[in-house]
Design a protein that fits this description.
- This protein has one domain (23-495): Cytochrome p450 (Orthogonal Bundle).
- It has 17 helices and twelve strands.
- The chain has helices at residues 23-29, 32-43, 82-90, 115-120, 129-139, 145-163, 174-191, 196-213, 217-220, 229-258, 264-270, 281-312, 314-328, 335-338, 342-354, 386-390, 430-447, and strands at residues 46-50, 76-79, 95-96, 171-173, 360-365, 369-371, 374-376, 381-385, 449-451, 460-463, 465-468, 473-477.
- A hairpin with a 2-residue loop joins strand 6 and strand 7 (374-376).
- The radius of gyration is 23 Å and the shape is globular.
- It starts with 22 loop residues before the first helix and ends in a 24-residue tail after the last strand.
- The structure holds protoporphyrin IX containing FE (HEM).
- Protoporphyrin IX containing FE is lined by residues 97, 124-125, 136, 290-291, 294-295, 298-299, 302, 357-358, 361, 419-421, 425, 427-429, 432-433.
- The site of protoporphyrin IX containing FE (HEM) has 23 residues, from helix 12 and helix 17.
Length: 501
């Protein structure tokens, strides 16, 4: 169909015989981290995964908020390495962010059913160039340190409430609990109310939306007919759009009646450029959806993976408990206290190094260019691997070892260690996330020990974020309980981190 379109000169696996180049993507997606590792080992840090254009809309005029372009795309390229990261992440106008895999953007003028896709995607993830700079400038006050510090007491309150339900001897899905925690924090700080049920419902739809988006059938069959994943994708898009629009509407009414609160949405409604223009309705819905989506699942996974890693490294857990007891004496941490906990800082850093909550992030090449000696035609989709950068033995010795103490002696650059990415598009919620994760861990670890059941199956599932598939059941133990790891962990997590059993 697109035989004459250019593709990258980077080497990579041949198309699967009889199935075509795009089938490589389907095979790859069954285990992105492992498959990308194999490809990097064989072809180097820039490797063509799909050596043919697949159905991709172009960047360029209209790539932001308007109708999608119509060019044909130029294949998919995997990238890792600090030099490549620096090139890509600093040249923001050449390497655009792409929120939806290009295949899912309507290439013809969107139908009325497809229009909400564009509206949902007007948040920070989908704007580029000057438009991105303007949006980011307007959003920054909502993420100012004083604002984030102001949310910390709420983070502690919500954690205390959730942890107070824990009973020694019971088994809990810790991933589900951390999801509840981050959702309640997100709805409280973003919407200004601890809207547990509303937030949970919205998050559930978003989670399903992401999983549907990564359904391989979606790549090739885009028919809005009953029973197809595309129909499900459009139905979910419409439902999320409606719910987010309702939240924005309610907030606007409440601000008009009672004035703005300290929540992020009030800040977004009040945000104005020098010329007095602010966000329009579509922007507000887009930003609200993106901040909500980006802001809870990532932190959930960071918390769950950290609790998993601590359960497998009892000596680190004991040292951390001692540090917490010494500084906090059983109480909840304040913002100042968090600065006095160097081991907690190192544990969180090391956890996000070994098991990054976002292992890969995307870009689309906006204009023909070169990277590391390979040509990249406009329209090439890049999957940049944070995971493989974090596991580069030239930067991190014994990269599969979970060793928080390594942070006492190493100082990697932002292009070598970047769980939040780097450059002008670096995660806007990074300080928020770190504060939330540290606050929650400091409280939880002072109350209980969490133990992974013997022979537990832990399989990371990657769909932009990396979560333990099927949750993370753990046994709640008292603080006096042995910290011995029962061992025998099974599953693909063993491909990523060295466990002592
Ligand atoms: C452990 C938690 C988190 C991790 C690992 C994480 C990671 C990331 C990564 C890797 C990116 C992509 C940057 C790029 O492509 O260059 C990103 C972007 C973003 N994140 Fe986070 N994030 C986390 C928490 C949060 C939170 C709590 C919020 C909001 C409250 C948030 C909001 C955003 C937004 C709005 C963007 C888009 C930034 C832009 O395009 O300018 N994230 N995050």
């Amino acid at each position: 169909m697109f035989e004459d379109a250019p593709i990258s000169s980077a080497p990579g696996p041949s198309p699967i015989r009889g199935l075509g180049a795009a089938a490589n993507l389907i095979v790859y997606m069954r285990n992105p981290v492992k498959n990308a590792g194999r490809i990097f080992a064989r072809y180097g840090n820039i490797a063509s995964l799909v050596r043919a254009p697949i159905h991709v809309a172009s960047p360029g005029p209209g790539w932001g908020k308007g109708p999608a372009g119509t060019a044909k795309g130029a294949g998919v390229v995997l990238v890792t390495g600090a030099d490549n990261n620096r090139e890509i992440l600093t040249q923001h106008d050449r390497f655009h962010m792409i929120a939806l895999p290009g295949r899912l953007r309507p290439v013809t003028p969107p139908t009325s059913r497809e229009k909400p896709i564009m509206r949902m995607m007007t948040g920070l993830f989908q704007v580029n160039g000057d438009e991105h700079r303007r949006h980011r400038r307007l959003l920054m006050p909502a993420f100012h340190k004083s604002r984030i510090d102001g949310y910390q007491a709420e983070m502690a309150r919500i954690t205390e409430e959730i942890v107070s339900r824990y009973r020694n001897g019971e088994t809990r899905d810790v991933h589900a609990d951390m999801t509840e925690l981050t959702l309640r924090v997100a709805t409280q700080t973003l919407f200004g109310a601890d809207q547990g049920e509303r937030g949970t419902q919205l998050a559930r739809m978003m989670q399903e939306w992401l999983l549907t988006m990564f359904n391989p059938v979606m790549m090739f069959l885009r028919f809005d007919v009953p029973g197809t994943p595309y129909r499900k994708f459009l139905d979910l898009t419409a439902a999320i759009d409606r719910e987010t629009a309702a939240i924005v509407r309610d907030k606007r009414v409440s601000v008009q009646k009672n004035g703005g609160g300290s929540d992020m949405l009030s800040m977004l409604l009040a945000a104005q450029d020098d010329d007095g223009t602010g966000f329009d309705e579509d922007d507000l819905i887009g930003h609200t959806g993106v901040i909500f989506a980006a802001g809870h699942e990532t932190s959930t996974n960071a918390l769950a993976w950290t609790l998993f890693l601590l359960s497998q490294h009892p000596h680190v857990l004991r040292d951390l408990e001692d540090e917490l007891a010494g500084v906090l004496r059983g109480g909840a941490p304040s913002v100042e206290d968090l600065g006095k906990l160097p081991l907690l800082d190192a544990v969180v850093k090391e956890s996000m190094r070994v098991l990054p909550p976002v292992p890969m992030h995307p870009r689309i090449v906006a204009e023909d260019c070169e990277l590391g000696g390979h040509s990249l035609p406009a329209g090439s989709e890049l999957f940049i691997s944070i995971y493989h950068m974090h596991h580069d033995p030239a930067v991190f010795s014994e990269p599969e070892a979970f060793d928080p103490r390594r942070w006492e002696t190493i100082k990697p650059s932002v292009y070598e260690y970047n769980p939040f990415s780097a450059g002008p598009r670096m995660c806007i919620g990074a300080s928020f996330a770190i504060m939330e994760i540290k606050t929650a861990l400091a409280i939880l670890l002072q109350r209980h020990r969490l133990e992974l059941p013997a022979r537990a199956l832990v399989d990371p599932r990657v769909a932009i974020t990396m979560a333990p598939a099927g949750g993370l059941p753990m046994l709640v133990r008292g603080r006096g309980h042995s910290t011995r790891a029962p061992g025998g962990v099974r599953g693909r997590v063993r491909e990523m981190v060295r466990l002592g059993n």
